[in-house]
Amino acid sequence: MTLPYHTILSYSGDHLAEELKWLNMLLAEGSLDILEYLQKNRTAQFKDLAKLKNKRTGNTFSPNTISARLDDLEEMKAIQPTSVKTSRKRVLAYEITEKGEKILEVASSFEKTLDDIIK
After folding, report:
1. DSSP 8-state class, residue 96
2. What pLDDT does residue 37 have?
3. Average pLDDT over the chain, rounded to whole?
4. Sheet harboring 90-96: ordered strands across?
5. If you write DSSP's letter for every residue of 40-85 in order, what string do you get?
6. Is pLDDT of 61 > 80?
7. Is the confidence at residue 1, as pLDDT, over 50?
8. Rounded to an integer, what distance in angstroms lies between the CA atom of residue 103 and that of residue 91?
């Protein structure tokens, strides 16, 4: 179920502070790119995500940016750590959560709404 964009900031007080935290996380460079990658590929290691390119600039994200976004997304429970087996050992990876999937739905709905307004 997608939510209309106007429901994103619909409360006051503590709830508004939480919504603003979410909005800031979503607008932060690389957040949606990471979620989209995980949605498409199910799991990814840091090295995979470090190859992502910024859609606006075409440059890869810095390791510091990727690390900060992973921390933010994990704190917001949009992704969760997991492990994957490589040929020699198990390594840390990340996967999108149900909450992360819903975030992408809302972001897509918001983007479509903006496109309709701009046209």
Report:
1. E
2. 97
3. 86
4. 43-44, 90-96, 79-85
5. HHSEE-HHHHTT-B-TTT-PBPPHHHHHHHHHHHHHTTSEEEEEEE
6. yes
7. no
8. 26
Is the pLDDT higher at 93 or at 106?
93
Domain range summary for the chain, segments of one domain joined by +? 31-118
Q: What type of residue sits at position 17?
A: A
Tell me the pLDDT band of 20, cut-offs 50, 70 and 90. confident
Hey, what are 8's tokens? 């994103």
Class of 31-118 per CATH?
Answer: mainly alpha
The full length of the chain comes to: 119
At 8, is the secondary structure helix, strand, or coil? coil
Single out the residue of 69, 89, 66, 87 nearest to residue 78, CA to CA. Answer: 69
Burial level of 72, CB count in 10 A (0-12/13-18/19+)? buried
In this structure, are residues 53 and 60 in contact, taking their beta carbons and an 8 Å threshold? Answer: yes
For residue 10, the one-letter residue type is: S
